[in-house]
Amino acid sequence: MMIVGLIYIGLLLGGVVYAIITGALGFLSDLGGGGDVHVDASGHLDAGHISPLSGPVVATFVTGFGAGGTLGHYLFEWPLTGSVGLAAAAGFLLAGAAFAVMGTLFRHTQGGSEFSLEEIVGREAEVITPIPAGGTGEVAYLAKGQREVGAARSADGSPIPRGQLVVVEKAVGPTLYVRGRG
């Protein structure tokens, strides 16, 4: 029976050491992302999703399993079936909580910087690369509190010099169509 207690303690310590090392090195986001970051065709950011089998969730299960087993074996002095049951319940409970918390964090992080170019219509922008007659330049504008830069064309085809303030009239694909103010 002593070997069972040592296994529980080993799992508990292994999970804690894993959490300390990955937390200290900042690898939790790399290990737990379970997805790639990309921008879709409409300009929306997809920051990825957490997987129930990601490193941090599995490590939380192992830590909870070790903690529950240690409690059942040493504190409550339960037989093997009781301590394994408590270990499994503690592992699943903690891993489920970790999965829920990280899923919430991913959703909030993803939603915070997401915008579509259609949301820019009607807003003011500044020409940062001159827009030649019938050609494309660049404008800078604010979206979700951040300065963004995008391709722009004159809505009426006329040239617009650098530094000119413009209003975004429409977005077609990644290109904004703008008109000079005034």
Structural account:
The protein is an alpha+beta fold. It folds into two domains: 2-112; 117-180, OB fold (Dihydrolipoamide Acetyltransferase, E2P) (Beta Barrel). It contains four helices and seven strands; from the N terminus they run H-H-E-E-H-H-E-E-E-E-E. The chain has a five-stranded mixed beta barrel with strand order 3-4-5-7-6. A two-stranded antiparallel ribbon has the order 1-2. Strand 4 and strand 5 form a beta hairpin. Helix 1 packs antiparallel against helix 3 (55-75) and helix 3 (55-75) runs antiparallel to helix 4. The longest helix has 33 residues, at 80-112. The chain is rod-shaped and about 85 Å long.
Radius of gyration equals 27 Å
- Which word captures the global form? rod-shaped
- Amino- and carboxy-terminal Cα gap: 85 Å
Beta-strand level of the residues, as a percent range? 15-25%
DSSP strand count: 7
Mean pLDDT across all amino acids: 82
Derived from helix and strand composition plus strand pairing, the structural class reads alpha+beta
Instruction: Provide the spatial order of strands within the biggest beta sheet.
Output: 3-4-5-7-6
The domain tally reads 2
SSE ordering: HHEEHHEEEEE
Features:
two-stranded antiparallel sheet; 5-stranded mixed beta barrel; 182 residues; single chain; 2 domains; rod-shaped; OB fold (Dihydrolipoamide Acetyltransferase, E2P); alpha+beta
TL;DR of this structure?
By secondary structure, the protein is α+β, with helices and mostly antiparallel strands.
Can you lay out the helices and strands and say which pair or pack?
Blueprint: H1 2-25, H2 28-32, E1 38-39, E2 45-46, H3 55-75, H4 80-112, E3 124-129, E4 136-143, E5 146-154, E6 165-172, E7 175-180
Parallel strand pairs: 5-7
Antiparallel strand pairs: 1-2, 3-4, 3-6, 4-5, 6-7
Helix pairs in contact: 1-3, 3-4
